[in-house]
Structures are given as structure tokens and as C-alpha cells.
Amino acid sequence: MKNHLGSKFRILSLLITFFFQSSSPLLAAQASPPNILFIALDDLNDWIGCLGGHPQTITPNLDRLAASGVLFTNAHCPGAACNPSRTAIMSGLSPHRSGLYDNGQKMREILPNAKIIPQHFRDHGYRASGSGKMLHYFIDAKSWDEYFPKKESEDPFPFTLYPKKRPLSLTRGGPWQYVETDWGPLDATDEEFGGDAKVAEWVSQQLSIKQETPLFLACGFYRPHEPWFVPKKYFEPFPLEKIQLPPGYREDDLDDLPAAGKKTGPNRYFAHIRNEGQWKQAIQGYLASIHFADTMLGRVLDALENGPNADNTIVVLWSDHGWHLGEKQHWQKFTAWRAVTRVPLMIRIPKNCAPGLPAGTKPGTICDQPVNLLSLFPTLTQLTGIPHKNDNHAPSLAPLLKNHKSSWPHSSITHLSKPGSFGLSTKDWRYIHYANGDEELYQIQDDPFEWTNLAGKKEHREKLNELRALAPKNFAPLKRPSLAALPSLKWHSSNNTATPPSKPDGNPFTLTFLNRSDQAVELFWMTLEGKRTSYGLIPPGGNKSQQTRPGAVWQISSPKTKNPLGHFIIGDRRAKAIIPKRSQ
């Protein structure tokens, strides 16, 4: 009898042991919370192989990641510039509700208490590590456990090699031009170049270590952001004589746009690049930079797949916004057209890894529903099973990760810098609304490059009304940055040298002079002929706001002797001009 009972007990024990050690997805996921590898690329549009944006692009690693999980082919960014997009992604807060729409704003000034993804995961047992650019030119040290470069520096960029003499390829057309708009091959190895190569190396090292604590690991690649300087081996697959122009370019593409669209489209960059004969060279530089970024991504993916964390790491890859290379006669970003709003998004979840999706993602899945990067925050909390952040402004993508054909009653919105200006995407349609009331309408299946504006067609009035109803009804006002948040212009001490004349060229904006000296000073505008016109006194410790333009020169002088003390040369954006204490 005892032997019979003992045998039953041993069998029961074995069954219990087998049950708890089995590969039940829920139990396995609960036993070890998944790591998250959160990868961002800067200024990458749809010029990757799996999205078909340009026939010459070389992106085997982006393509292999997409093939290993879910590729979203209709994903859009929340903002049409780095700062609003990255702030929205990392905080889960939409620009039209946070009031952060523009690159000139500071996240922590506008949203001092917003909790971003790494901190939220830290609050629930994760270790948060990162490298490279995740936010707009700062790290937000308080939200991370560790960072490379060191988080206390608030500088997310490792050493990067640039040409000693710049510009290298594109001469500056004037003070309006962003100084980094330039490109060319460098005679350097990846290691000598640094930058994203160092980011890839650091992130790969973290992935080679078995993680005992669940890890949120951010990897921010700066390329293909300008300037497009990378080692020359990445230029070699793109011979200049074989470079193809952007498939979305059409010479007459502005003809059917409303006034606001025609104003948004053409900019001085594209005209200047063409006048300099550098259009194909620029495309070559962009393709080379994408190729370089893809290679760095490959190093990180290899480190993950060959390391101890492969089966327990969710991989998410995104770009903050796209980029025009001549489409709509435009260069850069800042528009509501698909060239900017449509971005790569891919998510891979191993089986038995995530409590919110035990089955994992099915390799090779393609989802064409309209989604937004604003959804990444709630998606990650649902997948990992940690508490939802209640102020997130977008739905989780988990239903689409489970079944890409799931019902998805959502549209996707990309906001411009002016509240009330946005682009709205549904599965088959695109609606663009400008703050002045102008509109554009495109049917994407037949017109993927948005060449034919249907907004004025009677037969599409019902569709126009349908899309209007999906748009936000209220928009938070744009919160202007304080003086403290503005960049400072360089002070040029006189040193008995002549003050240069003004060469104004660009749109006007307001500049604020701050007199930090203990004496009053006189403000002079330098004319085009090098003469000066007085704009009054600034008392000691006083401020003066003044309308100006890029390229203008403002001289600071002694009101008694009229002798110049120094001057400021105005750049391409809003700033402050600090007159130093020892200017006399």
C-alpha cells in the first residue's frame, strides 16, 4: 500500500514539475519579463527595400528585420519634425494636446513632468539603458539608468568624424541655409568615423550580456540625418552617373495645390541644390547614409541574434519622420505629404516572450492599416504586461500584431508646426488640412505620390466630409519657448576690427538682446553698405526685442564714445544675443 501511494505521489510530483516547467506561453512570459530593443533612425523616409521607396537603396538588414516580424506599410509619424515627433513618441502625448509642435521648443520646458518610456519602465522593474539620439539633441538623464555617451553630459552623440574643410560639396546659399546641408565620402573606416558605429558597438555589448533584470535598451542611429558624410565604401555602390531621381518627383506637381500647399512646397534648398548641380550628388549622399545606417543596424541585430537574449527580446524599429528630396519642389521635412509622414515601422516578438502576445509575431506579416508612432508607448506596456500610462493619446497596436486583419477604426495624424495644420491618413485616403482652411485630398492606391489633389472634385465631397469628421476638434496653442530655452548667438568682440555689413536673406523673426554689462549700450543695425543705423539704448541688465532676418548684423557700441564693443551675426533661427559683462 505504501509503495502504491509513493508511486502515485512521485507521478503527481512529476506532473506538477512538468506543468510548471512546460513551455506554456503565459507561464514562460510571466517567469521572465521581455527585454525591449527600441531602435530609431533619423530622417529615414520609405527609401528601404521592403517599402519600395527608391529602386537603388541597399537595406538588407532593415529588410531582414521586417521579414522576421510585422512590417507596417502605412505607418506615420506624429510630427513633421524631429522634436515634436520624438517628444510625442517618447511621452505618448500628441502634439495637438501637449502644445509641442516645433523644433524650437524645449521638451522639458513645455512638459516638465511628462514621464517618457524609459522612466515608466524603470518604475515597473526595468533597467533603462540607451545610446545615441532618442530625444531632440538631449538625453534627459533623469529618465535613464545608464547612457552612452554619459547621461550627465546631455549630449547623445559620440565623436563623429567630419571633413576638416566645410562645406565639402554644397556651398552655402546664404544665412538661411542649415549649415549641415552637405554631403560627401570620407576616407575613413567605420571605427575612425565613429558616430553610429560607436552607438552600434555599445548597444551590441549590452546585448552580449545575459540580462537578469528586464532591459529597455534604446539605440538611436543619427544617419541618415544630415550631413551625409559617411565612409566612402558606402558611396561606392551608387555611381553618380547611375543615380535615379526620386520616383515621386514631378515638375508640375504644385499646379493643383491650394495657396497654403504652394507655399509649403517650394523651398530655397531644392532650388539652390539644383542651381549648384548637386541634386544627384545629394541623392547619392542620402542613399549612402541609409546604407551606412543599415550596416550599423546589422551589427546590432547580429549581436542580438548571436547573444543570450535573442529569445526574450522584443525589437521595435522606427524613424522619427521622412524626408523630401525634390518631391513637391521641396527639400527637408516640415510638410504633411507622405514623403515626410510615412515612415518605416517594424516589430518583432519571439514566441513565449511577451505576456501580451504569447504567440509572438508571425514572420513576414505585412500590415497596411493606418497606424501612428504615438501608439508605441501603449503597445509596449500592453505587450510586457506592465501598467498602462493613463495619459497616452493613442491605441495599442497589439490587436494588429496578433492579427494584421483585425478591425482598426483609427486614422493616423501628423501635425505641422502651426496648430490646425496636419495630414490625416486612413487605409486608402490622405487628407491634408492647413490652419487657414485650405485642403488637399488624395486616393493613395491610385496615387501613392499624391500627384492629383481631389479636394475640389464634387464626386469626392462625401469622402472629404468623412475625413474632416476624423480630425481633432481642438488644438492646444503652440507654447513659445522662453528666453532661457533659446540658443545664444556668438558674440564677436570688436578688437579694433571693422564690423561687417548686413546681408539679410530669409524670413524675419524676433531676436532678443540681453545686456549683461553694468552700463547702457547702444544698438546699431549695419546697413548693406556697412553704415550703421541706431535702434536705441539698452540699459544695464535690460532686454530689447527686435525684428530681424538671417544675415543681419547688429553692432553694440558705447553710447558715450560711439565706439563699437562687438557685434552679432544673425543665424537661420530664433535666438538670443547676450551682451557680455566685460563688453566695455
Descriptive notes:
The protein contains 16 helices and 26 strands. It has 584 residues and is an alpha/beta fold. The strands form 7 sheets. The chain has an 8-stranded mixed beta sheet. A hairpin with a 5-residue loop joins strand 10 (324-325) and strand 11 (331-332). Helix 3 packs across helix 12 (279-305) and helix 9 runs parallel beside helix 12. The radius of gyration is 27 Å and the shape is globular.
Summarize this structure as a short list of keywords or feature phrases.
584 residues, alpha/beta, Alkaline Phosphatase, subunit A, Immunoglobulin-like, 2 domains, eight-stranded mixed β-sheet, five-stranded antiparallel β-sheet
CATH homologous superfamily classification of the largest domain: Alkaline Phosphatase, subunit A
The proportion of residues forming helix, as a percent range, comes to 10-25%
Mean pLDDT: 93
Number of helices: 16
Strand proportion: 15-25%
Alpha-beta classification: alpha/beta
Shape: globular
Segments where pLDDT lies below 50 for 5+ residues? 1-30
Distance N to C terminus: 106 Å
CATH architecture of the largest domain: 3-Layer(aba) Sandwich
How many separate domains make up the residues?
A: 2
Biggest sheet strand order reads 5-4-7-1-9-12-2-13
Largest sheet: 8 strands, mixed
CATH level 3 topology of the largest domain? Alkaline Phosphatase, subunit A
The CATH class designation of the largest domain is Alpha Beta
Q: What oligomeric state do the depicted chains represent?
A: single chain
Count of DSSP strands: 26
